[in-house]
Amino acid sequence: MKIILLSGGSGQRLWPLTNGARAKQFVKVLNNEQGHPESMIQRIWRQLTGSGLADKAVFAIGKDQQSMLRKQLGQEIKMVIEPKRRDTFPAIALAAAYFNSVEKISPQEVIGVIPVDPMVEDSFFERVNETEEILARSGADLALIGALPAFPTEKYGYIIPERTDGQDGYWVVKGFKEKPQQAEAQKLIEEKALWNCGVFSFRLNFLLKILKEQNLPTDYAELLAYYDRLPKISFDYQVVERTEKIVVLPYTGSWKDLGTWNTLTEEMPQRVLGKGIIAGADNVHLINELGVPVLALGLSNSVVVATPDGILVADKQMSPQIKQFIEQIEQRPMYEERGWGWYKVLEHINYDDGYEIMVKRLGINAGKNISYQRHFQRSETWTIVQGKGEVALNGVILPVEAGSVLEISQGDVHSIHAITDLEIIEIQKGSTLVEQDIERFLFNWSEIENECHRKKCM
What we know:
Strand content: 35-45%
Structural class: alpha+beta
CATH topology of the largest domain: Spore Coat Polysaccharide Biosynthesis Protein SpsA, Chain A
GO molecular function, one term: mannose-1-phosphate guanylyltransferase (GTP) activity
Radius of gyration: 25 Å
Keywords: Nucleotidyltransferase, Transferase
Number of strands: 30
Number of domains: 3
Number of helices: 11
Strand order of the largest sheet: 20-21-22-29-24-27
GO biological process, one term: polysaccharide metabolic process
CATH superfamily of the largest domain: Spore Coat Polysaccharide Biosynthesis Protein SpsA, Chain A
Pfam family, one: MannoseP_isomer
InterPro entries: Man6P_isomerase-2_C (IPR001538), Mannose-6P_isomerase_type2 (IPR051161), NTP_transferase_dom (IPR005835), Nucleotide-diphossugar_trans (IPR029044), RmlC-like_jellyroll (IPR014710), RmlC_Cupin_sf (IPR011051)
CATH class of the largest domain: Alpha Beta
Largest sheet: 6 strands, antiparallel
Shape: globular
């Protein structure tokens, strides 16, 4: 059995803690068994490792998330990188093509697809393992996992069984209902319907046949080149709802989708994260990443979140509606974690004549460096406020420490390497202050150092 871990989403319903560059699965708001902070992706990887499935897994992930995945789980993690987000069907198809033409597994091999953001017990992964045997025994094309509902809710989709009197460890699927109203959800539960956990298992040749029928490549390199033209559609709509032979394995343990504030806060170990006070309040959580104190006074059943990307004060039950509102907000990410560290936008000013100024605070971890790069639309001023490091500037390597100031003009090729943890105030000045205004030449500091010592680069 092989595993595809779906990790390409950004989690808009957890705004403003998440943004286009900071996905929900990487935010450390949970605690592990030792009481240390961990992210959703670290939690599920720990559980997969314990179940023996980790060495069989590959992550399907967006290209802007690969450095964060390696930072949290290590450099050896296998991943299939989506050139752009196109929903779950293209992501699963790309990973299947990887197994087919890169790992060259048997077409009869079973593939299990698991999202990375649910909160589940370890026994959940035992059920995932069992889908391989259930597919063989049932003759089905797809095996799903459905959780026994704890209560009627409009937040989840439901799997409707044909009957529930079998003793085979699985039920034949009759149909699906996506996020029904409360009354209908209660009726579905009475009919033994299950919450849809978003897990799919199938033989590789099942999906390869679908790709061939749609005249899509089954070779990984070819499908990667074709990716921008794939339909932007979910695996549920493109495959599941068009498949007749489907079974579901009931899961009796706890299962919770952590994709909204009302569900995530139920699993958060602290009521307050960051500088803040909750007083005279009931069932309130506060997360503050700003440098100013936040007071939540007299609230009830609410979540208060303050980050560089925005401020949210919401009733927990209404928090799943956040997505429809933030789609109206056009703003670049104000905080992002990278493989080398992090940055936070402190101020961004747009003048009437098109000139812009952006002030950033950068943290570069000891031993890390940014790429050797240049910009064409902006100049930068770096002020080192903490730590020691080395700067490569137009082929010359210079030592820097707290108090050092460097002027980087348009076209200057530059990089910085942290000897100890570095903090920098960066002031960008120019006409187009976007991440795309970067031409990168080298990535590893040893390569940069060798090239710059040998001759003046570029």
